[in-house]
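Marked as duplicate of an earlier ticket. Keeping the data here for the record.
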Amino acid sequence: MSSGDFEADYFEEGRQRAVALGNRGPLRFDEEGNVHPDILNAYWQYGFYVLEGVVGEEELATLREDFAQVVEHAPAGPGAKVDRHGHPALDADLARPGFQFAKPLSDPMGGTEIGNGRYQVKMEELTPGSDAPESVLLQINGNLQHMDSALRLYGHPELLKVTEAINGADFTPFTDAIWVKPAGLGAAVSWHQDGMTLWDSPDLDAGTHGFNFMAQLYPTTPRNALWIVPETHDAGKIDIRQRVADNNGSDKLPDGVPLLCNAGDVAVCSRQMLHCSFPNDSADPRVTFVFGFHRRASVQGADGLDFRTKKQVHYDDERIHERSRVISLAIDARQQRYPEEPLYVYQPLVGEEEENRWSEETRQTVLKDYNLNDLSI
């Protein structure tokens, strides 16, 4: 069998395994208005669940439009301060640079010390065509201040009910990002687990490091999707090097499945699961808006990264409160746009709604540089 035939079989077999899991469907609630237990049971069993059709056509269109504007005004390349038109780049006046680039079809993080060395193995890299650009977008951070549509999705009442069901009513934020896989050029992200801080905690369980929502702006396929090894969210910290070695050195792990979604689907994915993405040499782009949440007990008093100093910092009540204000801001921004929707009440900030109203003033006082206070564990 040629390498091309092997890859084709691997992607097709992964697709079949993904479809057979049964962990997908519309976002449903029981008679008491709670997230349906079938969804939660499947999430806790597999470590992820695909909520189908959460984002409607109008909202999806605004997300795509806003994303296109972000790309239009992104830095012209790594380290650039201006966009392709010679104007100041979108993050030029922000304290935390927001755009990460990579060489086409490369694996920029595998086998490095990035992320405390969590990207343990180097993925297979492909050779781009001679007309390929030197770099392509890989990740964009701080999108709630770039895209009003992203802020509104962050405050989606039904997704926040899912968050509460998984992490408790006193949940806290994590971070957000847009992962970009340009058609024919998208870089790989090595197999890894997202959690870093609490692997040795005596209280470690399947939900200790929180979860991410992954909203898809375009359909995903086996060749451009995130790949997941189901049920690894409850396996502790995994020796990824050994897994690859046991697979004859191949990064095509035999139990992986692609995260198959239509545009507008939102997947719920444990940060502890083993996952990766292969170089996207297909004709289909992927754009995924990722935003995550933690249990308060996991963050309260934990040591994590300070994005101002790049050093470890103690996450105290003040920092958690300041970062959590963005949840209230997003709830109000969404309510202003979609007043017919039910209002989600975020319990930790009850009574502070007035100071967290969405306005041009709070865009500057609350939202600008909000991601300096991201709670990364």
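See parent ticket for discussion. The longest helix spans residues 317-337.
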